[in-house]
Amino acid sequence: MASSLNDLYKHKIKTAEELREILGPYPREKKVIMCHGVFDVVHPGHVRHFIYAKSKADILVASLTADKHITKGKFRPHVPEDLRALNLAAFELIDYVLVDHEDKPLKNMAYLQPDFFAKGYEYVSGGLPQKTQEEADILSEYGGEMIFTPGDIVYSSSSLINLAPPSIKTEKLMTLMEKNELTFDGLRDALKKMAGLKVHVVGDTIVDSYTQTAMIGGQTKTPTMSVHYEGRTDYIGGAGVVAKHLRAAGADVTFTTVLGDDQFKNFVIDGLTEFGVECHAVIDRTRPTTNKNAIVAGGYRLLKIDTLDNNSINDEILTEITDRVAKTSCDALVYSDFRHGIFNKRTIPAFLKAVPENVFKVADSQVASRWGNITEFKGFDLITPNEREARFALADQDSGIRPLASSLYDASQCKTLILKLGDRGVLTCTNNEHEDSESFFVVDSFVDRVVDAVGSGDALLSYATLSMIATGSSVIATILGSMAAAAECEVDGNFPITPEDVLKQIDRAQRFVDFDHSGHGQD
């Protein structure tokens, strides 16, 4: 990656200890004024605030609240703390920037003892709020002074973000990659390392069918639609398409599943075998192969007909599958749970016990409209639920995304959590030190135009899994997984994503970054 303009400003971002050494003790010859806020979006009101503050002292210190203490809205902050700090450091009139890891600025105020602390006019126009009084009390203890900047116009960052969230996905990506010393060539190298890795996928196969029709009309006496049958197309879905994604990425894939003794049995086995997946299907004559048939007319889904049996597999089948799990040599084991009989409270303990030693363990529980809980797969190396599945697992519909991810990480006892947030991208949690900002990072969606989001989670899971085995980097895994998901979203249907598809995403992201470095901005 080319040298970033960010390097010009990083020297202004300091710790509290560094600032105390630079500023010296109070009273001092050069006056210091301090501002504090979230600064999720720096708007004209903030600029006026900074200009007025700098006019009152020699040195302006801008302090910002760390990500972990921001609770405005489920998806805030919109801009991560590292990038918010760089945004402030880029202002010429701001001398130093401090990321405050406390929930209030009181501790750093007492530690640094600025001559002045600047507040916006809105904090005094209706009487002094309790929090502002606490700040004033700290200042009075050593002789500092509170200054209120003029504010005939008050701007709200929250209002601006809710009105039109700024598109800063390139800036976020650049900041994350630079922080972890990653390059685009490094991402390309990671793709090459995936070839030949051995993965065992165990899970529910779904045959997804699309029956195309044309609307004829309806009955006059009853509310019955009439359509003309035009054709039907069947696709291998569920855990089967996860196996295909992994194979398309270059892995050697073994797939173990349960199928019925029906027309779809050979369709699944032959289709996977032709694709290069080693398929081991246990045939259960008491249940059908799961089939979900969408009736489509004029591009609209009129109806979906499900043929399935969600009852648990019997003990004989459970033993046959767990024996295969225990005996199959692989680099990674993926439990792909769609709650169609293989995984449930009765069987999961046996599946956990069967996992071979020193195997990278991955779980994905796509519950949709059924009962399922990702936290039942405890102690796994990687889990990739979406927000709805996380809230379902924790019975939590209210928490913000970071607290939700923290709770799920702890409940599942996993090593890496990639929480899928739809068009907002993903949030990754890598350790249980949730008060530490290093525990989380966000990667925005790389999708330019959504054609069909079906299967994007399967693509993410596959490329994230192989990336983790190949590199051990959760950052690379999240970026490449997100790029694979974007490639899937931009095609119609759940088609296996190839390394060439991901390389196109890498090339596109690099073009955006290089464009920014050329001195131009994005629209």
Q: How would you describe what is shown here?
A:
By secondary structure, the chain is an alpha/beta fold. Among the domains are: 5-166, Rossmann fold (3-Layer(aba) Sandwich); 197-354, UDP-N-acetylmuramoyl-L-alanine:D-glutamate ligase (3-Layer(aba) Sandwich), CATH 3.40.1190. It is 36% helix and 23% strand. It contains 17 helices and 19 strands. α8 packs antiparallel against α17 (499-517). The chain is elongated and about 85 Å long. It starts with 12 loop residues before the first strand and ends in a 6-residue tail after the last helix. Residues 517-523 have low confidence and may be disordered.
CATH class of the domain at 5-166: Alpha Beta
- Overall structural class, as computed from helix and strand content, comes to alpha/beta
Rg for CA atoms:
27 Å
Strand fraction equals: 15-25%
CATH fold group of the domain at 5-166: Rossmann fold
Strands in their spatial order, largest beta sheet: 11-10-7-14-15-16-17-18-19
* Mean pLDDT rating: 88
Overall CATH architecture of the domain at 5-166: 3-Layer(aba) Sandwich
- The counted number of beta strands is 19
Unreliable sequence segments: 517-523
Largest sheet: 9 strands, mixed
Number of helices: 17
Shape: elongated
User: What's the N-to-C terminus distance?
Assistant: 22 Å
Fraction of residues in H or I helices: 25-40%
CATH superfamily of the domain at 5-166: HUPs
